[in-house]
Amino acid sequence: MLEHIPTKSDLIEAHQRILPFIHKTPVYTSSWFDSLAGKNCYFKGEHLQKTGAFKARGAMNAVLVNDAEGKAYGFLTHSSGNHGAALAWAASQIGAKAYIVMPDNAPKTKIAAVEQYGGIITFCAPTLDAREATADQVQKETGAVFIHPYDNYDIIAGQATATIELLEAQPNLELLFVPVGGGGLLSGAALANQYFGNAKVIGCEPENANDAYQSFQAGKRIPVQNPDTIADGLRTSLGTRNFEIIQQYVHEIITASEDELKQAWRFTTSRLKQLVEPSAAAGLAVALKHGVGTSGIILCGGNMDLDPFV
Amino acid sequence: MLEHIPTKSDLIEAHQRILPFIHKTPVYTSSWFDSLAGKNCYFKGEHLQKTGAFKARGAMNAVLVNDAEGKAYGFLTHSSGNHGAALAWAASQIGAKAYIVMPDNAPKTKIAAVEQYGGIITFCAPTLDAREATADQVQKETGAVFIHPYDNYDIIAGQATATIELLEAQPNLELLFVPVGGGGLLSGAALANQYFGNAKVIGCEPENANDAYQSFQAGKRIPVQNPDTIADGLRTSLGTRNFEIIQQYVHEIITASEDELKQAWRFTTSRLKQLVEPSAAAGLAVALKHGVGTSGIILCGGNMDLDPFV
Fold first, then answer.
1. Number of domains in chain B
2. A301 touches chain B (CB under 8 A)
3. Which structural domain, as residue segments, surrounds residue B85?
4. Does A61 fall in a domain?
């Protein structure tokens, strides 16, 4: 288990480690979007990743790093979102158990995803305190290896591999637009760019959940309480390890309004015909209004509630 | 302009003619769907075609066949759906005008698509009589070449090219599931399979708009009036040229209920992460309940109203 900011070789090793399990996701372009945004854009399609989100990368890396202990005692996390399903999936790849603590108001689709991958769910009250207390309890009972959704260097190294692949496909990116919630994807992207690229790294955040923006400006973590945004994957506040890396290697945090997020989501679905979750629209929303130059945009996931439609 | 059922060489020529303009769309697989359906399935992604639907193929072929007259007088059709946008796009590729007669209650997104490709819209009352009368009027005023949405052999030859490409990718298809509305796609698929494949061809139709099923059983065209189904692209009744081909070369028509269509649409968006229109789910819905064997399924288009979401 990594106890330091991942080095260049840590990222390379993480990538080699997970490659037999994950998808090398496609990179999309759209001449129509390019003309709107005024730059050449490359979209990294992590909505087509295993489990429907980049989270499979970090979870798989953390599971493989803790392989022996995990097989003996299982893995554990608390998550209302994609990380729970990703950890359940990753654990199942090596025949290990996964204990997932979920709030009892979690969307049915998220519960179904965890169950599908064989995750063992413990429900708790929908507060952070209840989640942590319940996870502690499960940990004591099982001895399972706790894998934090983002504040964990093995997770960060795993998430970095999405950007490594994007830079392999487009080595000369000048701008890199990355959604930021807890900061797992953004801190990983910033490290990958530091070691393998030369882009300006821009964290893309909902205006309504702008703790990363505020923290980045203030030079200290300022969590937000119960933010309300359609980008449900970005409601989380930054982790300490993530913030440490973001302070050093990210160049700017830019926020997008709810209208800008909706417009960007609408573009992705109606033009690219790709179903991404609203969080994945954050990169596009910011790309539409910032900067010139060859740009990479990470479409971070594709898990969303389809009930409004059918 | 073809005046007979397209021959094998007619299809090959149509494909060569349109290849510089259209996308060779990708073919998807899903191990999860395969286990549900009990067969190996190959999805032809025509939602990623130019203009977001297979209609670009037929329209481009008809435009190129009528190139000289079209450049002089323009092209004309009546359409509330994807064919109008496809014809406007195809005409714009050779610098010709496109006159599109649309009902005045057409969805805003469909109107916007026609306008985006430079189509010249004439609105009319939302009845078939009004459409045809208005199209006649525009034809008299402009001398434009009328291109029927499906009851036209050049259109049929163009639509056949989607199946030619699917058979190139998977020559040994045993079953071919094709949505049927006016019958342009299905009659084209049946011809392509007759000349290049050896599959059982199954037309897939909403139970609520089952004129193809009824006509196929009765051996004569039995149009439906104002059918109500979420598969809006399949509300049309069969054309005469289409029915003639379908009677000869299609093996079976199978209907899907609204619930089956919704479930299949939900699968495509939530699992494949591909935004298809509900009509495109008809092939999946029928594939889920019929037959065993290597199967091709045409995802016919991806243009749908996103308003319920954003």
1. 2
2. no
3. 67-146
4. no
Asked, for residue B304, whether it belongs to a domain, the answer is no
Q: What span, in angstroms and rounded, lies between the C-alpha atoms of B217 and B158?
A: 27
Judge: B275–A276 Cβ closer than 8 Å, yes or no: no
| Same domain for B88 and B171 | no
Q: Are A74 and A145 in contact (CB under 8 A)?
A: yes
User: Are residues A178 and A41 part of one domain?
Assistant: yes
In degrees and rounded to multiples of 5, residue B195 shows phi and psi of: -90, -30
Tens of pLDDT, residue by residue over A59-73, are 999 999 999 999 999
Asked if residue B234 and residue B109 are part of one domain, the reply reads no
Phi/psi for A224 (5° steps) reads: -105, 150
In a domain, residue B59? The reply is: no
> A146, A169, A194: which is the final residue of a domain?
A146
What pLDDT is attached to residue A128?
81
Cβ–Cβ of B266/A308 closer than 8 Å?
no
Out of A48, A269, A306, name the one closest to residue B266 (CB): A306
* Residue B80 annotated in active site: yes
Phi, psi of B272, rounded to the nearest 5 degrees: -75, -15
Per-residue pLDDT, B265:
94
Q: For residue A208, tell me if it sits in a domain.
A: yes
User: Is A185 in the same domain as A268?
Assistant: yes
Q: Verify whether the Cβ–Cβ distance A273 to B275 is below 8 Å.
A: yes
Q: How many CB atoms lie within 10 A of CB B245?
A: 23
Q: What is the CATH number of the domain that holds B277?
A: 3.40.50.1100
Residues A177, A253 share a domain: yes
Q: Do A306 and B269 touch (CB under 8 A)?
A: yes
pLDDT of residue A59: 98
Length of chain B: 310
| Contact across the interface for B302 and A273, Cβ inside 8 Å | yes
Taking the Cβ of residue A47 and every Cβ of chain B, the question of whether any pair is shorter than 8 Å is answered with yes
* Residues A133-158: tens digit of each pLDDT: 999 999 999 999 999 999 999 999 99
Residues A157 and A249 in one domain: yes
| A90, A118, A146 - which closes a domain | A146
Of A262, A273, A309, which has the smallest distance from its Cβ to B52's Cβ? A273
Tokens 């698509």 sit on residue: B113
Q: Is A273 on the interface with B (CB under 8 A)?
A: yes
Question: B188 CB contacts (<8 Å, ≥6 apart)?
Answer: B58, B156, B157, B158, B159, B160, B161, B162, B163
Closest CA to B264 of B247, B246, B288: B288
Annotated active-site residue B270? The verdict is no
Q: Find the CB nearest B273 among A48, A309, A310.
A: A48
* Residue A276 contacts B where some CB pair is shorter than 8 Å: yes
pLDDT in tens, B130-189: 999 999 999 999 999 999 999 999 999 999 999 999 999 999 999 999 999 999 999 999
Residue of B nearest to A277 (CA): B273
